[in-house]
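FORM 7B - TANDEM STRUCTURE REPORT

SECTION 1: FIRST PROTEIN
SEQUENCE AND TOKENS:
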Amino acid sequence: MSPSATAAKEVSAISSADGARSADGVSSVGSVPSSRRRGGGLYTGPARVMESAPSSAGVLKVLLPGETVARDAVVAYSASVSLQEGSRVLVTRGESVDQVWAIGILDAPERRLATRDGASASVVRDEAGEILEVRDAQGGLLFQYDPARGVTRVQVLEGDLELLAPMGEVTIAAGGGLHLQGRSIQLKTLSSVRILVHDLASRVLGSMGLGRSGLEVKTGAVNVETGDSNLVTTRSRFRAEQASVDADRLRTRAGTVEVEAESLVQRVGSLTRWVRDLAQLRAGRVRSLVKGSWISRSGRADLRSKETFKVDGERIHLG
């Protein structure tokens, strides 16, 4: 039981004893007679704190009932709570009026634990309820737990925050989203980084892995939108059941281009080819259908046929 709860229970017992006191001045529960508690010097009961001070200071300024001058009370409980003016404590006084001890806390506007260097943990109230806060020696918020809103916050206003498990693992799990925000984000690993997307049945729907051997992406679809892109690779390989390229302008520059296909179909509005040295065509059969004119010019022409060579036209001009 906390010191405040214990003290409140003691005061309640004393009050009950006063109400049940017998005619000879002694309570029915065996408490100290009222005349000895207040009149002659002995007293155990509530007192009001007159100056704000942490109870860890060792001495409190308190005002006892029926008195007009505050006196010093030696703190005789272990709790370290900051008491404000008007807080109530449970005190006991000996035969001498200067022998006063504070033995418990009845109420305090702020519940606070403090270290010698000023770091503290306290319970504060707002319109939603109570909030648990931990602050450093300069008053900066380090930890906050708000049960009414369901929010737990850890923050470091200055310096670094480190989570270390040199001989184990670190797991961060969230039922909702997980957000990382920073001026820069860096991941370091000795083996690999792997991202998995799975459904409620833990079936993997997509994955991305980056390791020493390379980058591996497995997913149903990939959509990349960028203003400019540049791919530099020593070797590359592209494999697809179907492929489509849509571009306003497409330019290919290569030392050698090889195309292997069972069927090649080209549909263009206008086709122009420049061949610097040799243009060579090897085919089982060649069929050329020209709707309009067919013009062929060369410095020298050589047409040969092992079998029939046929020229058919309404007019044939030679020479």
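SECTION 2: SECOND PROTEIN
SEQUENCE AND TOKENS:
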Amino acid sequence: MKTYLFFGLVALLAAGCIGDDIVQDAVEPELRITNPLDSLAVGATHQYEVQYFNGIGQPELAEVTWSSSAPSIVSITADGLATGLQEGSALLRADVNAREGSFSATVLLEVGANTVAAGTFREGMIRSTSSYLLEGDFELHDVGAGRLELRIADNYRASTSLPGLYVYLTNNPNTSVGALEIGRVVDFNGAHTYVIEGSSLNDYSHVLYFCKPFNVKVGDGEILD
């Protein structure tokens, strides 16, 4: 009798955790500039870094070339080393030819008196994609030394009925495969913070919540600039 009750409970939890229709794991490939600047000092240089993410959101090696819309203001080598030549602005463009097609990424760079890094945090809103309660705002902060903090706001709420809810950072919000697992959710109401080692601010596009025992998505939040 206990065996029947156990398997009946597992089936009930699995059914309750499944809140999405079946989805494809494919996403739009993307070329992303991972270390942008707000401005570059005259005479200074900056080595841009880019990452190509394929059609399932995984990083993939690809040959990238760069160009500048105003080479007299900002020169840039084919491999992304930018030099500020005189005050003004230029649109810098990275291009890649990959298996899945041609993609580009652009960044507007101001040249002036100082070099100023881009913002140190991004933000977004968690939304449920299931029948379970999951909502709230968040900020992703670069706190230095290769460390991020995912700060969940005090308006966060999540159902305590979720069996094995985990949170991830990912470039494919359709699946936890290949995502960075942050940890099991133990806070279901109010503000809390996750510390993430060895990642950069622009490495991921989404926060993802997954019912890990049944590999089912519960909710997500796009990480916006």
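SECTION 3: OBSERVATIONS ON SECOND PROTEIN
The mean pLDDT is 91.
The two ends are 54 Å apart (CA to CA).

SECTION 4: SIGNATURE
Preparer initials: ____
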